[in-house]
Inverse folding.
């Protein structure tokens, strides 16, 4: 596994380079500039602003200056948050997005796998049908609709949880549930189908012939093999939670990277867009590396290969 991780780390650098290059090119191809939406500025003032941020330089020179800057870990100053650097903004907002993503991932995996196991343990029962209804609801209900319903019912009507901000554990409940709902529904169906397939294998039949309890067969023998497909989607699921946090952070007014990214796109804040994009890319790369490690733990054949 160590050589595999070293290869993945080596491939992460070109991946980040390609993402940074494509992001830079695409932003420059979009008509307009970061200061075009401001009220009409005198030509001299606009020229001074562009000179300050090197926007008067040729595009190729801007690219070299920016790549040299991020190679040193400096994402540059924000165009819209005057007096603040992108590094400062990311340093403040990254912990919020990280907590939201990790909590949502844990809730979605625990609830999804648990519901999938219960459904496969009692196929055709009312619990299985209830799990199917939960999955259909999770597939069909958009995150922004579900989050708005949570605010309307649990925050506005019953006053159980705060409707916005991120100032304590009670503030995390609604955003985490809103973000984890759809992934949990997907994992429940995936785990159910995978576990039902594993339960038809020969080793399960042998375990039953030995007189082992059904609960021990499922939890100790079958579940480990059934989790391999679930682990395979953890990487893409993490990416989905990251992108989904844009909507959740906006609905619940969370001071995370997703909210800053939406604002940066609207304001054409090039350095902030690039900084958030690269951080998200690095998170996805790390998530995929963790998936590779879990593969080796769950399936020894991966370590042999």
């Amino acid at each position: 596994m160590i050589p595999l991780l070293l290869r993945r780390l080596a491939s992460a650098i070109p991946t980040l380079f390609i993402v940074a290059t494509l992001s830079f090119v695409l932003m420059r191809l979009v008509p307009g500039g970061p200061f075009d939406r401001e009220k009409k500025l005198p030509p001299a003032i606009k020229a001074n602003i562009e000179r300050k941020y090197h926007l008067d330089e040729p595009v190729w020179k801007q690219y070299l200056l920016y790549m040299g800057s991020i190679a040193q870990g400096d994402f540059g100053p924000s165009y819209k948050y005057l007096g603040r650097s992108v590094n400062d903004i990311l340093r403040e907002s990254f912990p919020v997005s990280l907590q939201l993503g990790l909590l949502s991932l844990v809730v979605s995996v625990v609830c999804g796998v648990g519901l999938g196991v219960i459904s496969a343990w009692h196929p055709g029962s009312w619990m299985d049908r209830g799990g199917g209804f939960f999955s259909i609801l999770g597939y069909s209900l958009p995150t922004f609709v579900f989050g708005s319903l949570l605010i309307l019912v649990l925050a506005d009507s019953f006053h159980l949880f705060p409707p916005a901000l991120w100032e304590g554990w009670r503030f995390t409940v609604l955003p985490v549930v809103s973000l984890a709902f759809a992934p949990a529904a997907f994992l429940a169906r995936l785990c159910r189908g995978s576990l039902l397939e594993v339960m038809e294998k020969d080793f399960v039949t042998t375990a039953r012939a030995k007189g082992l309890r059904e609960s021990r067969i499922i939890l100790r023998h079958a579940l480990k093999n059934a989790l391999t497909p679930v682990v395979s989607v953890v990487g893409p699921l993490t990416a989905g939670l990251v992108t989904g946090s844009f909507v959740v952070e906006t609905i619940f007014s969370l001071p995370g990277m997703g909210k800053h990214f939406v604002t940066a796109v609207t304001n054409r804040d090039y350095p902030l867009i690039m900084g958030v994009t690269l951080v998200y890319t690095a998170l996805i790369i790390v998530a995929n590396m963790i998936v590779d490690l879990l593969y080796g733990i769950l399936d020894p054949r991966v370590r042999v290969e």
Q: What stands out?
A: The chain has 13 helices and no strands. Residues 93-304 form a domain with the MetI-like fold fold (CATH 1.10.3720.10). The radius of gyration is 24 Å.
